[in-house]
Amino acid sequence: MTLSKLAESLAAPATLRLNATAARLKAEGAPVIHLGGGEPESPAPAAAVQAARAMLDRGDVKYTATAGIPALRQRVASYVEAEFGRPTTPAEVLVTAGAKPAIYAALVAVLDPGDEVVFPAPFWVSYPEMVRLAGGVPVAVAGPDGSHEPRIQDMEAAVTARTRMIILNSPNNPSGAVYSEAFVAGVMDLCERRGLFLLADEIYRRLTFDGRIAPSAVRFARDLGDEGRVILVDGVSKMFGMTGFRVGWAVASRRIIEVMGNVIGQTMSCASSLGQVAALAALEKDTGYVEDLRRDLQGRRDTAVRELTAIPGLRLVPPSGTFYCLPDFRAFGADSTALAAFLLEHTRVVTVPGVDFGREGHLRISYCGPAADVVEGIRRLRWALDPTSPREIQFGGAVHVRTWERPGA
After folding, report:
1. Residues 237-250: pLDDT tens digits?
2. What is the CA angle 355-190-226, rounded to 5?
3. Which terminus of the chain, N or C, has less C-beta within 10 A?
4. What crossing angle do the helices spanning 336-347 and 371-385 adopt, rounded to 10°?
5. Which domains does the chain have, with CATH numbers?
6. 279, 12, 326, 292: which is closest to 142 by C-alpha?
7. Residues 6+ apart with CB under 8 A from 156
8. 261, 178, 277, 217: which is closest to 83 by C-alpha?
9. pLDDT at residue 22 tops 80
């Protein structure tokens, strides 16, 4: 059977693939700890659940307009205006089934075959494949070793006559880095000088630590009207822990939103009405949920950093946001896929290979799961990697003995 060469060249996202592996091992009774996940364990806001329940009780779960229900589009417009001080109308808002369709619709709306899309490395695992699916060519730009932020001159050097868009994801998945104001402003200026679109993926923007504020490209754009080139992507999945409701949005000029809406209309029709009603309730009745989640995640971040930096040879740039970090494990081997497999086999801890994020030799560690799991998972990692740790460890009701030399030794 012959299928599309493009489709067959795609791999399942590493994060989703590892979710499936962890679920399978747990079902088999293995003492698995999942440090690769991407959703807070906190329950969704009560107001969102109640709004969804009321809609279910009415049985009135129907299609909506492609761009979303009017009340949610208005609320998102008001939210953006309040956050950034830039007037926004519902006509400049497109509601989608999570942030990922908004990103894909933006790529399809902007790219012609062979057009290039530039983004910093490390990058979210789906950017390169989504660009390719939209007919484009992904171009990753790495920062200096030990830094997760490229230099502006390196970003500009990557721009060619075929470049159409730059993607910025800050706070960044997988590193937790918050890009500096100078970098974000510089990229916005670069886009406006070179006639490029800037897709600002700010799904984690409100989940920052230590008083940091993630600078938004929206604040530095000279034009947000008909000639505006910023496409802001956000949603309720991360800041409200509402991953399963699948509601995101894009905010851009009317012309861009109109074309993106046509893409959504011809592919996904609309976001779930149930999810949209829940998202509206979360935005309207946020009584401190996001701040409570942010504070909780900062505490978990502190725990993860403390435990990870106790592993000899490991290097870590502490994350300033999100619920991920990207430690440098090159002291234990340059092949992150092999290292992640080694750790899963011997410790039953799931991590995500950095190669999938454009940063080989690193592993993405998530600390948004149960706090006890984060501590226990890192304890097992240290046992496997640190030759000075005790040779025996107990987990899963059994005693395990380290019988190997430290990887990379």
Report:
1. 999 999 999 999 99
2. 110
3. N
4. 110
5. 5-43+289-401 (3.90.1150.10), 46-284 (3.40.640.10)
6. 326
7. 190
8. 217
9. no
